[in-house]
DNA sequence: AATGAATGAGAGTTCATTCAT
DNA sequence: CATGAATGAACTCTCATTCAT
């Protein structure tokens, strides 16, 4: 499209590009510092631009969040098939993939909360995550289920929301290790053996 | 005292009591209808009193939430020893107790969220729950661990926060069954058997 | 108490009353100075109160405008029947009533504009004026038409809007005498005599 | 149309012309659709140019409005002497001329409002209309006054503003017939006959 | 000469909390 | 003691206008 090494961009996109990058960097910093609910003004100030600029580039807050984290989400999505193909047991692949997902969530202050929120501003964020990652997770689950390594009754959506929930507030409290609990949850997915 | 015909008598105690009860009822109703984040004004309106009255009785929102749910929290706390004494396996006792806790959380719109929030207004709510229920849970965990039925590395605080997190948003989405996930988490607590 | 002239108002309304009056005075002043579109904040500042106070008393801008001018609108409405009963010709009564209406409009900076605006914020203002004054005007027109002193094809609504329109911008420009034009319009209402 | 192959030729003049015409067409369309207050951006989008281009060609909104309607204003201006010369009574000539003016105003959504507004952006529009049309109207009025067919005390400026005002909002409300009221106003210009 | 990205003032609105009555 | 009016900070969103490319 933008062709090969991508050059076709019409003239002065270079500037806008750079500016957008500045915006994304500032937003990322602001999200880290104050969570994804940080006031738009703060991000603008951080970036040294006017609020209008942010609204131009990202009409809704969710658009901004998506843009900030798109690469990492993509990476997470692509890791699913790779892990399945890498030769370990399906349950192990699932566990590792979930681990990547947790990595992502726990390092993003407030992202897990936003994913659960039914706030209108985050509906598109919600949709983006679901559309991109649920199928990946579903594939992992199905494979593991087919191999008899996880119970069949849990669906990808439910599992991901559960993991997302477990990550809420992680990192704010040393007594709470989200990753450990997620590990237990994944362990609990195994079919019960007879006593 | 305030019975009979008494008017000038020191009737205030009874009056205040009744008033406080009205408040608690109204708050309970408002919490159910709109979650624990419901505007203070709405609760006041529901109770037919001024907002000032609420602030007088319950300086912080958390105080109000605590008061509303104190009975149920108490019941939950007392159920712990009872379950342990009732003869089942320690793991089963733990599972049943967690179930009670989930019952409580999922029927209280927004309570799970409030428990995780680090909002200053909820700090006392936080403390109350922790002080009352963590020891109970810890006792159950220890007993089960001593019997070799759960891994020893999980602490009560962590487990309860995990369960609380899993309950966030429960009931708002038919595709998400918090109780099932909690069940998996509890199942995951069991020590790994050799393959 | 608030007894005396007997006014069942419950207790401390006295204060709120006074405050509301302050608000109305400030709003009237602000309307005069900057028109009825003056920002809510400015009115609040003028009155020395917070913006919230204005929203509490008058949820919409139109409510405020109505309140400010209600007395004068009432007076105008009541003058209609009085003029009819006062013995002059019906056309003269109509002319004098329109004059009162013009008095009102031209002394209120921007009110005439607001009456024409289809801005949602003014819909209730619109309705108030129409409901109150159109019937009064209609009565005057009918009487004059029955006496053969005005053409029958003009309706009260149309006439009032026409007069309102003529008053737009009156007082801002010494070369424009709205009252004279209104006079011509009313004169033009007379049936044509044969040449 | 970009014609032949010419690229480096001194095409700018033609280019600029065409561009300006595109702008005027787009503005006319936008004015019709949303009134003369339509956001500058919308016009630019309609024309397929940047907002800067509009500002370059027409520094103020009024300049744009003037340009869009210049032809019709010219036509209106030229019709005055023609009507006077066409042999009818001076009052009839005035009436017909006013009719042309109304034609113009009522077909231009929001133009009448803009003419009255004291918004700085419309000062030049104001001036243009006045400079061009007031003398024409004055001539018609004087002629009719000299013939004893209209009262002498009304000035052209006043009359035109009155007519303009009566046209505000015309077409938006079926109960309001601006043309009828204008007709009454013009009729009211006749000197009073003795009773 | 054209572009459209950036600016930033300003409007409306909400609600936790205080305090005079 | 109860009341609820008042406060005002905080937030979102919209454009007219400027200016670097």
From TrEMBL, chains A, B, C, D:
Residues 39-58 bind DNA. The keyword Nucleus does not apply. Keywords: DNA-binding, Transcription, Transcription regulation. Pfam families: TetR_C_43, TetR_N. Residues 17-76 form the HTH tetR-type domain. InterPro entries: Homeodomain-like_sf (IPR009057), HTH-type_TetR-like_transc_reg (IPR050109), HTH_TetR (IPR001647), Tet_transcr_reg_TetR-rel_C_sf (IPR036271), TetR_SbtR-like_C (IPR049445). It comes from the Bacteria. This is Helix-turn-helix domain-containing protein.
């Amino acid at each position: 499209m933008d062709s090969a090494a991508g050059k076709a961009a019409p003239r002065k996109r270079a500037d806008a590009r750079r500016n957008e990058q500045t915006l994304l960097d500032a937003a990322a910093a602001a999200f880290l510092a104050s969570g994804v609910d940080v006031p738009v003004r703060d991000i603008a100030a951080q970036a040294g631009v006017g609020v209008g600029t942010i609204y131009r580039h990202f009409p809704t807050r969710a658009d901004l969040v998506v843009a900030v984290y798109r690469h990492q989400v993509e990476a997470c999505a692509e890791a699913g098939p790779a892990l399945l193909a890498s030769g370990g047991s399906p349950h192990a692949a699932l566990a590792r993939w979930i681990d990547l997902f947790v990595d992502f969530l726990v390092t993003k202050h407030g992202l897990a909360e936003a994913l659960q929120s039914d706030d209108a501003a985050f509906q598109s964020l919600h949709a983006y995550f679901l559309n991109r990652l649920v199928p990946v997770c579903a594939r992992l689950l199905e494979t593991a289920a087919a191999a008899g390594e996880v119970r069949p009754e849990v669906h990808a959506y439910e599992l991901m929301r559960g993991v997302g929930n477990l990550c809420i507030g992680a990192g704010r409290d040393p007594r709470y290790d989200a990753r450990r609990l997620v590990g237990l949850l994944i362990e609990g997915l195994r079919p019960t053996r007879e006593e």
